[in-house]
Amino acid sequence: MNNTPFAELNAQSNFSFLYGASHPEELVEQAQRYGYQAIAIADECSLSGVVRAHQAAEPLAIKLIVGSQFTTEEQCQIVLLAKNLKGYQQLCRFITQARKYSKKGSYKVKLEQFDQQLDQCLVLVKASPTLTTKQLKQLQQQLPQPLYLLLHNDLSQPAKILNAYRQLAKQQDIACVAAINPRMHLANRKRLADILDAIRQHSTVQQAGFLLSSNAERRLLQWPHLQQRYFSQEIALSCELAAQCSFSLNEIRYQYPKDNVPPGYTGQQYLRELVEAGIQQRFGEQFTPTLRQQIEHELRLISELNYEHYFLTIYDIVAYARQQKILCQGRGSAANSVVCYCLNITEVNPTQVGLLFERFISKERNEPPDIDVDFEHQRREEVIQYIYQKYGRDRAALAASIVTYRTRSAINEIGKALAIPAHILHGLNHNIDWRDGSSSTSHKIVQAGLLPEAKAHSFAQLVEQLRGFPRHLSQHVGGFVIAQDKLCDLVPIENAAMADRTIIQWDKDDLEALHLMKVDVLALGMLSAIRRCLSSLSQREQRTISLSDIPQDDSATYDMLCQGDSVGIFQVESRAQMSMLPRLKPRNYYDLVIEVAIVRPGPIQGDMVHPYLRRRNGEEPVDYPSPEVEAVLARTLGVPIFQEQVIKLAMVAAGFSGGEADQLRRAMATWKRGKLAYFRDKLINGMQQRGYPSEFAERLFSQIQGFGEYGFPESHSASFALLVYISSWLKCHEPAAFCCALLNSQPMGFYSPSQLIQDIQRHGVNILPIDINQSDWEHSLDYSQAPKGAIRLGLKQVKGLNKQKFTRLLAGRPKQGFSQLSELTQQLDKTSLESLATADAFACLAGHRHQTRWQMSGTEAPLPLFDMPEEAAVNLSAPSEVEDIRQDYLATRVSLRRHPLHLLREHQALKNCYSQAQLHQCKHGQLVKVAGLVVGRQRPGSSADVTFLTLEDETGNSNVIVWSATAKAQRQALISSRLLKVHGRLERCDEVIHIIAGKLEDCSWLLADLSVRSRDFR
Predict the structure, then answer these.
(1) Helices (H), ranges, 467-598
(2) Predicted pLDDT of residue 667
(3) Which helix (H) or strand (E) covers residue 686, if one does?
(4) Which residues does 946 contact at the CB level (< 8 Å), separation at least 6?
(5) Are 751 and 769 in contact (CB under 8 A)?
(6) 132: closest CA among 165, 175, 179, 110?
(7) What is the DSSP string of 279-304?
């Protein structure tokens, strides 16, 4: 109950970065506990924390006032509070303008800018040593509304100073209002506040001195303390001002942009016209009455919920991309809609996979649909700039991504502030397995033994407090917010770190909470690779080859997948997918839909993988308790694998409406335990009323609960499966062109260029070395050696080269190529020449690396004082193979020579180690030793018990499983080794082989300075 006659008008949360020491919701909740009438969250030139505060305030029935604080160039501190919707719009515009001409994270504002444009805001000036009579007079002249002076008494200043502020206000006829100006909700955050001060000042706590707060009084105070510090009229005025502020974030009304409707049309009419045209293109003579019924249902619901302009906005963006020949693909929930299919937003025909429209749009959800569109990752910027150009910077911006402190960053920042030596911080970060959830952060830090126990406990407490605090705003990966009118009337806009990017101050969760539309313009590397591959094939065949030219249900493609041969293929290239492919044995498109979804934490945790495989292999009978359940689960053999199946089961077996079933999915997905009991009872009672056995109902709910948080939507899987098949067909039938496209689309995917090259070499494709006379900047296809081409490595693979410089060089390269090294030494700088020499790109001119460097050293101009005699030709001996391999990896991280393991195989340390190829001759359960370069470490977030290693040797990749006990006992070898020797037990299931690790030996010393990096925990 709000029985304290006080309202805090200037609280600052941790969204005043490196200043506020409490989350917005903590401030709101504590203010409610103390009985405050209201609390204003007024962060520094920001509204980033107000949505979270709003969500906390609504159920607590405490008034939240939206505001912001500014420090002018004249060092005057001013707080603005929104009185109503118009005042909120004025505040948003003011923040946007203050940040418009400043770099990311900063702002500029002058006293003269506080004028009549803020007439619907309360304006309060903070009493501070820099405040002058002149500043107060200037503000009074500029503002049409009264000005107020914020007094704060944190006991750090003599009473006479506070009285002096009161006297100054009286002279200017300004009323004083009490304010705590809190930066934390409780006093126990004082130590964290000191840490934040030290970090902000680039100092340590010991050195900061008077920069730190002198006490913990900048916290929310209870009524007795307030009475002691302020006059009654100053406290009463806080409530009077709070009463003037009636604005709530619930008043925000978002309107979709209407730019995409031609004159003479309504949004509904134009959308229908586009859909009708799409029907002819997509279905033609196969259009059925059932399809007409579905489309009419979708269009009717879209119209009832006023979503036409949302669909037209997505359609316009996709149409632009297609005009520019940018490959794109709508995915996710969009695949549930026949309308999206007819608009060419998605390539998935929902009628073929039986998806559920209610998963996409439903009345009960009362929130906008969510359409994700993937674009080529190397050309997505073109689409982003098109959106900015069409709608303008004042109507379109990217959503924010709030970067928060994680354990490692918190340890580093707190450690520096406490002057803890760097080697101790390094030890805490790198010698502790922070992903292991078996013990608390505090226990791990104490157990590490790097700090005295008392200090370790104190340090761990600070780490726990700082973890999850926002560090700064970054840009979302592609979530655009586009408005009909000025976006800065809804939320402030500021500059991102990247040029030509602007972001709003809210993240995607904030947007969802306020039901604002977000258009996801995402980047997908595989689309870049596919488009490059198709362009290459079109050039070779002298005709346009598109996705529609790829034949469906190709047996050779599925044969390849059944063998687990999927390096470089979209979505199924991980070691887990490679292990699943030979067991699931996909033979059609829907098998790929299941393949994509089944290797996910949800089906695994819900114990659905093995039952499905047993039923697929005929080892277990498939039964259904009713025809209705069979209709839902028949395609997955009675095992629920997709989120959509959960929704359908709740509808057909328990009588849920579409919206109720989706609420069940959401409650499970977010582990809203308070709602689970309600849905459990409704589900089980509904099934029993319809004649289903209670055992079946209980088992179904247990399965749903087991994979609810990680369940994968069939709509996503259906979209991904299209790209799985396309990339598989290209790898199977055009391996050189596909691999070349992958290499040119880096960085992307699971494998490094070196691994992609080794894999394609094992498929018989020839790889040609980097050559200054033959290589282009990008990797290219050479058809002189094979009908489908060999791959010539490009200069982009060489580290340290400038693309623009070498594009000009190659444009002027003679048709017959350079004939002498001197032609290049005159055009290139020393660094570029050295990089090319290290990459052995001059072999065509000088023979080998030693000879190249000798000739390069002889191209310097002679001193003009004497005529230099002509030197006799010098022939140096070539480098050893080992030296060549080291130089290859150093310059390009790729070598076309023998694999390092081939050279080291006879070393005593690796005696009796099996190669990957030899493992296929071993028996299940056999003890083996393997060794290889560590090219990948993975530990799924849903599994703290196992780490997966990928070891590469000259014959392929071996998969190693390291259980948690082994990982903890031999952590150093597991985490740090580049060349690892593993003693373990071989496990075989069909053709799938794993090594269960027992002993790990770090043999990296054998590599000397060979430059090999692994892809760890990605």
Answers:
(1) 508-513, 525-541, 555-562, 575-584, 589-598
(2) 67
(3) helix 673-689
(4) 939, 940, 961, 962, 963, 964
(5) no
(6) 165
(7) HHHHTGGG--HHHHHHHHHHHHHHHH
What pLDDT does residue 434 have? 65
Residue 1001: strand pairing partners:
981
Task: Find out whether 329 and 374 touch, Cβ atoms under 8 Å.
Answer: yes
Cis peptide before 601 (omega within 30 of 0): no
CA–CA gap between residue 550 and residue 569 (Å, rounded): 16
Rounded to 10 degrees, the C-alpha dihedral 116/117/123/127 comes to -80
pLDDT for 517: 80
Is-contact 369 431, C-beta < 8 A? Answer: no
Whole-angstrom distance, CA of residue 870 vs CA of residue 799: 35
Is the distance from CB of 995 to CB of 982 less than 8 angstroms?
A: yes
- From the CB of residue 393, how many other CB atoms can be counted at a distance below 10 Å? 16
Residue 990, phi-psi category: left (phi > 0), alpha (psi -120 to 50), beta (remainder): left
Helix, coil or strand: residue 928: strand
Q: Minimal CA–CA distance to 589: which of 352, 372, 749, 357? A: 352
Strand duo 63-71 + 38-44: pairing: parallel
Helix or strand or coil: residue 524? strand
Write the CA distances from 208 to 191, 217, 781, 852, integer angstroms: 13, 19, 62, 57
The separation between CA 426 and the C-alpha centre of its own chain, rounded to angstroms, equals 26
Q: Tokens 């105070």 map to which residue?
A: 221
At position 883, the amino acid (one-letter code) is E
Q: How many residues does the chain have?
A: 1018
* Residue 236 to residue 730: CA distance in whole angstroms: 74
Q: Give me Rg for the CA atoms of the chain.
A: 33
Q: How far apart are CA 724 and CA 589, in angstroms?
A: 9
Q: 320-331 pLDDT, tens per residue?
A: 999 999 999 888
Q: Which residues of the chain are modeled with pLDDT < 50?
A: 671-674, 861, 1012, 1017-1018
894 within 8 A of 791, measured Cβ to Cβ = no
Interval 38-85: pLDDT, tens: 999 999 999 999 999 999 999 998 999 999 999 999 999 999 999 999
Q: Which two tokens stand for residue 993?
A: 């082989």
Q: CA 598, CA 639: separation in Å to the nearest integer?
A: 11
The β-bridge partners of 5 are none
- Report the distance separating Cα 1007 and Cα 1004, nearest Å: 6
CA–CA distance, 514 with 69 (Å, rounded to integer): 23
How distant, in Å, are the alpha carbons of 49, 176, 681 from that of 133? Answer: 33, 15, 68
d(CA 149, CA 175): 6
C-alpha 736/C-alpha 759 separation (Å) is 11
Q: Do residues 612 and 618 lie in contact, with contact meaning Cβ atoms separated by under 8 Å?
A: no
CA dist 630 and 643 (Å) reads: 16
pTM above 0.70, yes or no: yes
Residue 808 CB neighbour total at 10 angstroms = 11
